[in-house]
Every structure is written in structure tokens, then in C-alpha cells.
Amino acid sequence: MTLLAVNDLSVEFVTPGGRLRAVDGVSFELAEGEVLGLVGESGSGKTVACRSMLRLLPSERARIAGGEVLFEGRDLLHESEAQLRRLRGSRLAMIFQNPSTHLDPLMTVGRQVAEPLIYHEGLSSRDARLRAIELLRQVGIPDPAHNIDAYPHQFSGGMRQRAMIAGAIACRPQLLSADEPTTALDVTVQAQILRLLLELRDDSGLAIILVSHDLGVIASTCDRVAVMYAGRIMEQATKAELLRHPRHPYTAGLIASRPGDGARGQELRSIEGQLPALSALPAGCRFHPRCPHAEAVCRTGDLRPLAIDPTHTTACIRWREATAAA
Amino acid sequence: MSALLEVSDLHVHYRTAARLTDILARRPRRFVRAVNGVSLSLGRGDTLGLVGESGCGKSTLGRAILRLTESNAGAVQFDGEDVLKLPPAELLRFRRRAQIVFQDPYASLNPRRTVAATLGEVFRVHRLCPPRQVEARVQELMARVGLPMELAGRRAGGLSGGQCQRVGIARALAMGAELIIADEPVSALDVSIQAQILNLFTRLQRDMGLTLLFISHDLGVVRYLCRRVAVMYLGRIVEEGPTDEVFRNPKHPYTRALIDAIPRMDPAARLPAAQLGGEPPNPRNIPSGCAFHPRCAQAMPACRQGEAPSRRAIEGRDVWCHLYPSATAA
């Protein structure tokens, strides 16, 4: 069942140099218990898309320019701020890349985990504390009855991320948006945190949007993947389909750029050039200046995602030729 | 292959800041043993990857080899000379031959200087060529690292991350360095840009016979680029050998856990079962015996006490682990 449907979402930033469209016509859906990966390089708009869904962007600088975000049929973009506050932290939760900047350094970890329980579920602070200990145990914090009174600086990076997850899942949300949750962590801790997220999904049917720049992280955790570039979704498919049969030259380039089992001494098939600035986006397909398969048709017009089959869309109008050439 | 770089039993200890309670209790100053007896050897034209979790001492080791950080004990031989004993004038000569590329390309360049000024300075400081030739040499260098000429007048602050890293590499190459120590040079870059820089290293290595010590937390990158790999844990090397062998059949439990934790690109792969419990360790508080024993599933009583395990040579590589028979016992 569809839990979340994002339709044609666009987000603009107001800057002295004019309006910059960081997210442009992004659409995706998420079912209960599903893990959707949003992958892309810096500036691709994946974080902005995620935050704007929960309306977490500063209203004076960011403006939602269009679209809808339907959560269980209600458009979050048109809910009142009071209504949103009731949803955030209870049914919609978010975790971030850097737990140290998203935990209050002057508040014990336990209070921060218990806070949503007091606020949303009306628990007494004693009951909330007991639940918080249970939550810390669930996310794998050792000796939770003791560590509940620790301050964030007394935790390692991995433990802070676990504490943030404990706070996020305290009210049993249906949707968790995880923005690069393991990027700041060592690879061994990364595996632990990803496993924890998947266990939460398996146990409670939590739906997860996992934002990452790392295709390896996406490949080992997600059910479906959307690839973003310069504010747009370039390709969207099931994980297996996307990795085995990419239908967009950018996706293919990202996969080939990874130094996987490639032979030493042999150059990687990297993507030439660099990411465009939002203030100077190319016309037509935004990837065309870096695309080895670009033709005249790619340089003009407004290219919208094409459905190849019911579960696979690509924004590349020459995907047949590009796939055949690859 | 003769050894260009030979590090023997190197120690780097940092003094920690004294806390008020320590001063009041008259406790002795504490030390962080960032590098705790490392030996390694790097042949001319060879590539060695140095991997490990944050805090394992890999960056400190790289800096200590170039004497950017002072060592407490041990020796660093470069082409037969003991680097740690070089007088200042000789040190400058050594640094023409051995250079470093840093992780953060923005932080290691002066943002208000142009690319041409940054690179030209190297030639002037080391008096590598007459002043009127500097411009030509800079252009030659920019071409070699794939920087378009129109960027020569651009300030470093206006460059992209990948371009900055190319300037950093060009600066290291300017004096014809034979050894480059690259400290996480692609970690801050996007995937597509990272691939471009890795290709540049591959080309430089192939065409110029560069000797490379490549420090990274990313095992995939090291596997692709380096012929040999050394795995560090809390200031010591725990396994060292040919990359392909180590990846195919890791001997040390820590190496195995690190390799298993790499997310696989195979869509059919699931997350690996938990190999490593616990948290990455703190170099302020190194466990006795084998420093890895609190996280090791195969730890035995012998691992928990005494000295760290000695080196064992097994199947073409070195492992520091009690699971394998030591030379004296064999």
C-alpha cells in the first residue's frame, strides 16, 4: 500500500543572484516497509528533496515551487504548522548525517530520546525514561540504564547515530527519512547501523528513504533506487534492475566510476567534466554536456521521465541507443 | 625492486592536554600512542595502501615519514639516508623527492592565490629553474595533471574540489618527487570526480614510475590502486601483503571484518552478518596484549595479556596474530 507519494515536487532557493531550483519536478512513491534509495552526487538535490517533504527548510530562503507530498493521502505541503508538528517525530521521523550537530550537547541522551514520547504520547517523564532505556537497548547502546544519563560528547560517532535513531523511532513512525546516516562513520560501524535500520523495517514495517552518495550502501540496503542529478530524477527502478540494466548513461557512469573489482592499472570509465552549478544549468537534458551518447535532441527541450516498464523510468530519451552502445 | 622507503619500528606519541583534575592529583602526563612500532618497506615504483578505521594512526604515520610530525623512536630510511637525522638543509633536499597530497583540497591551498602562483612558488622556493622558465614549467605541470590552461589565473577558492585536488597533486609533482604520500586524497570528492583522480594516479604511476603510499579508509579504492596493502589497528600494522591475496583470503580477523563490512554492489548480496562488535577503539586507551582482542571473535587467553603478537610470515604475507604459529614455535 502506498504510504507516501511525492508528485512533481519543486523547491527553489532565493539568493541574491536570483532563484535557484534545487529540486525540479521530482516524483516517487513509497510503500509500507519499503526502502527507497535516493542516490546522487553533491548538489543533486537529494537532501533538499528529503527535507522539503517534511517542510524542514528555512521558510525565508527556501520556497516550495510546486507539487504535492501525499502522506496517507494528505498533502503535507498544505498542512498547518501545528498539524505538521504533530506528525514530525511521531509518524514521520528523520535522521541526519552528522549526529553531533543534531543532538543538543547540553541535554542528556536520555532526555532527547524521551522528549518525543512526552510531547507526542503524553507519557510522564518517569515512564518516558523507562521507554528510553528500552529504546537505547533496542538500537544497541551498551548498558543503557547507565548510558541514558550520558551527554552526546561522551558517545562515539556510532553511538550518537544510534541514539539519534532511538529518538527517531521512539513513537513508532511509519516513515523514516535517513540522510546519509553512515557517511561520517567507519565502514565497520556503517554495516552495524545499516543492519539496525533494516531490522527496524523488518520488525515494524517502517518505510525508509535512504539518501546516500554511495552506491554500495544503496545496493546492500534498498528495494528501489532513484538516481538524482542536478535537481532531477534521472532514473528510477528496482535495485536489481538498476544495477544490472541501467537505462541512463549517468547511472551507468556512476556504476563504472566505482573502483570495484576493476583491474589495477586499467583506468576507470569515469564521467568526464563536472557537476553543473544550479545557476548555470544546461538546457535540455542536464547531463548532456558530460554524456558520451548526447546528440542534438538532448540539448533542447524539456525532458521528462519516460516509463520503460511499470517499475522502471528513465529521463534519457536515447536510452535504447545508449544501452546498445554500452 | 630495491626499497626506496624503509620504516623500522617507528613510534609517534602525542602528549595529551592535561586536565585540571590530573594536575590537582599530580598524575603524570598521558600519551597517545598514535604510531606504536610500525615497520614497512616500499620498493621503487611500488604502490602500498595503508588502511584502517579513523584513529588508527595511518595519517600520523604518513606525516611522520615526511617529518611533518616528529617521531619518538625508530628510523625512516629513504634511499639509504636516515630521514629522521637529516639536518635542515638536507631535509629540504629530501622533500623535493618525497611529497604529500592532503585529504581536504580546499584546506591545503591558499584560497586567494591563483593556480599559477601556487604552482610557480614551488619552482621559486626550491630554485628549480630560472625565473623566466617558471611559467612554461607551470603549464607543463598543469597539462600533466589534466588542468585546463584557462584555470591558471583562477584563485584556488574558485575551483571545484576535483580541480583543487589536481593542483595539490601537481604541486607534489612539481619537483619531480619520487615518493608521494597521499592521505585520503579522494575521500572528499564525489564518485565521478573520485574516478577521474584515481585515473590520474594510475597514469602517473604507470608513466612516471611514481612510488605511492596511499592512505585511505576506503578499501575499494585501495584494492583498485595499490599492489600491496597494510592494515593498521591502533598504531600497529596487523597484516601486510599483496592486495589481491589479502582481499581474497584475509588472515587477520580484523582484516576479514573490514573486508566483510564493505557494502557489495551485487544486487543479490545482503548485508553481511555482524563481524565486529563494539566501537572503534580509542588510541588513548590501548588494550593490553593484542589491541584488537576486545572486538575479536577468535580471541584466546594469550591475546589478552603481555606484548602485542609478533610478526608471523604466512602464505607470502605478514600477519601479527596469535592464531598463526610464530617463527620460533615453528
Layout: helices, strands, pairs:
The complex is a heterodimer of chains A (326) and B (330).
Chain A: E1 2-15, E2 18-31, E3 35-39, H1 46-53, E4 62-71, E5 74-75, H2 81-87, E6 92-95, H3 99-102, H4 109-121, H5 125-138, H6 144-147, H7 157-168, E7 175-179, H8 187-204, E8 207-212, H9 215-221, E9 224-229, E10 232-238, H10 239-244, H11 249-257, E11 306-309, E12 312-314, H12 319-325
Parallel strand pairs in A: 3-8, 3-9, 6-7, 7-8
Antiparallel strand pairs in A: 1-2, 1-4, 4-5, 9-10, 10-12, 11-12
Helix pairs in contact in A: 4-5, 4-7, 5-7
Chain B: E1 3-15, H1 20-24, E2 31-43, E3 47-51, H2 58-65, E4 73-78, E5 81-82, H3 88-97, E6 98-101, H4 115-125, H5 134-144, H6 161-173, E7 179-183, H7 191-208, E8 211-216, H8 219-225, E9 228-233, E10 236-242, H9 243-248, H10 253-260, H11 301-304, E11 312-314, E12 317-319
Parallel strand pairs in B: 3-8, 3-9, 6-7, 7-8
Antiparallel strand pairs in B: 1-2, 1-4, 4-5, 9-10, 10-12, 11-12
Summarize the entry for a quick read:
Chain A is α/β, with parallel strands linked by helices and 326 residues long. In chain A, 33% of the residues lie in helices and 25% in strands. The longest helix of chain A is centred in the middle third of the chain and has 18 residues, at 187-204.
